Amino acid sequence: MGNWVVNHWLSVLVLATWLGLNVFLFVHAFLLYEKADKYYYTREILGFCRCSLKKQLDHNLTFHKLVAYMICLHTAIHIIAHLFNFERYSSSRQATNGSLASVLSSLSQEEEGVSWLNPIKSPNMTVTYVTFTSIPGLTGVIITIALVLMVTSATEFIRRNYFEVFWYTHHVFIIYFIGLGIHGIGGIVRGQTEESIKENHPHRCAESFETWNDHNSHCKPPRFEGHPAESWKWILAPVVLYIFERILRFYRSQQQVVITKVVMHPSKVLELQMNKRGFSMEVGQYIFVNCPSISYLEWHPFTLTSGPEEDFFSIHIRAVGDWTENLLRTFEQQHSPVPRIQVDGPFGTASEDVFHYEVAMLVGAGIGVTPFASILKSIWYKFQHADHSLKTQTIYFYWICREIGAFAWFNDLLASLEQEMEDLGKVGFLNYRLFLTGWDSNIAGHAALNFDKATDILTGLKHKTFFGRPMWDNEFCTIATTHPKSVVGVFLCGPQALAKSLRKCCHQYSSLDPRKVQFFFNKENF
């Protein structure tokens, strides 16, 4: 650093990693924090841009994780550098050999706290004591613990099986940001003052440190000061935006929501139809839902299953955890009043772009069919009102379920679409495949005996139910052959393993010639 700092390159490393941390925190907080609003509005702003540019926003969670990994990496480097620093501080304080480090460590610490360099102010003082009695040390420990809690509770296993643990622990970020803002107060990393450098240049005076106190010496003992706290500058704007957003979301969530209809579907699925003043949506969007009687703090995202043309908005909730099970149990109590529901949203997703493609492949796994229910309903309304602005020419819909009862969730919708397409002479517009992955020999045998019937014995639809999983290579090959010069949008709401397979097929079956068939993969991320 060009001055008297004992820990020279380690101090540079500390400052460099701290700068890196602040940069990543700024980017993370400013661009991604509470992705919902900013993600939706940014998609709207970029609506006029190239599809490839706007599609990058659909990887927001991946970017969120990458930034978190980089924060962890820089934190580890920062901590290790500090540990080396404190080891050198301690050894310099203990030294009695009259070396430069020893002399600098023993500089007077009583002159308004300016001239000292070594935070370990006596040979008997330990590194642990300094860590837990100084502002930088104590806040460093606190924000490190907070970071560890946030990262460990955000693992896939915890999020899937103990969502409440993930939810509450992730909000430790409030402590993290507060600690981050005051971490630099105290000036552990110090440098020579500008006035002292002019009077006692380091390169000239370092060689004569034994004569600093001599009256005839041109070099006097240097004076030091701590670097001012800088973190608050990096987090101020994101924190202000975050607070503004929380106020806005709180205001919206307090608007009255009227539940107009409650439907209990098979396989422990609850459908809520609601109204809210000023509510406006697009296909594939989602909302955050809170039930104060269950938890005041928990907000869970659910995809809207209604169409924009309907005079209500609806969601389908499957009981897969404590919160959703409690919600279903609350609505099942017929003699109890309908619980109050708070709604925030709607927010944008990749599925909004479905009508921008000539050909669309919609793939839903289980309850992951919900965003496509909204799309299919919107299509039905568009054909009802003879909407000629629809760019999409063909839709391939795949629904993969473990239980037969799950197909009943949107059975009426598919039946209505079948009839509508037939009446309009557009039988080829909607091609859907239903796949049953959880079945036994009795079900398969029953289906085989009734295979010649006009409608499927399991669903009552004209399209037969397939047993097993789709052969994606065959499906992509068929679509690529049928639409050799089309841009195909592939939309998935399902598990990561399925996403990996579909992404691979999109790359494999997209033509190298941009004028021929191209597959673009889109995945719902929550």
UniProtKB/TrEMBL annotation:
Presence of the UniProt keyword Electron transport in the record: yes
Catalytic activity reported: NADPH + 2 O2 = 2 superoxide + NADP(+) + H(+)
Cellular component GO terms, alphabetical: monoatomic ion channel complex; NADPH oxidase complex
Cofactor(s), names only, from the UniProt record: FAD
Membrane topology, from the record: Multi-pass membrane protein
Subunit: Component of the phagocyte NADPH oxidase core complex/cytochrome b558 complex, composed of CYBB (heavy chain (beta)) and CYBA (light chain (alpha)). Component of the phagocyte NADPH oxidase complex composed of an obligatory core heterodimer formed by the membrane proteins CYBA and CYBB and the cytosolic regulatory subunits NCF1/p47-phox, NCF2/p67-phox, NCF4/p40-phox and the small GTPase RAC1 or RAC2. Interacts with NCF1 (phosphorylated form). Interacts with NCF2; the interaction is enhanced in the presence of GBP7. Interacts with RAC2. Interacts with RAC1.
Protein name: NADPH oxidase 2
UniProt organism field: Rhinolophus ferrumequinum (Greater horseshoe bat)
